[in-house]
Amino acid sequence: MVRRGAWIIRYCGKEKEMSITPEFSRRLPLHRLGRDAYTETVEATPEECARIAKRLELPGIQSFSCRYRLTAADKGNILTEGWLSAALTQICVITNEPFDDVVAEDFVFRFVPLEQYLEDEALDIEAIDEQPYEGNDVDLGAYAVEQLALALTPFPRKPGAGLEQAVDEVPRDVGEEDDDGFKPFANLSHMMKRSD
Q: Which pLDDT value is given to residue 35?
């Protein structure tokens, strides 16, 4: 089973000595969950967007929200479905220029009590991801940031930017003249003929 809880586990109390404050925190008391699915939407303020952008090394985030649907299960497990949306600025890997982008992603995972959570290195792409929690609440904001980090493309490209823009100069053919009439590869061509 794929586990992504290591990144977020420090927010759940397992590494309390680190004392890290989430950039975006919206704690949900678990007593609000009943037999029916519970829905809640969390939205970041401009100040929180700035902190999230810094955390994710982005030039900026204009807006960020996530809608959750949580369904309580047995043994403290909570099936969690989410739909996130973010308007943000990224840096194009081709042109190195900033550009505006929109990220929309849905996800599913299961909240699991920390005492039941076990790291598993085996890969099972069909299994539902598990996230540990501790206490009587879960931080929907912190988990939304983690899901946004996972949704970001590692090599963002500005619309219309092609690989040809990453090439500074088209290689010349041997013997081709430059703008001043100079043939930079003339001697090389002559040497190649002599070696033959």
A: 85
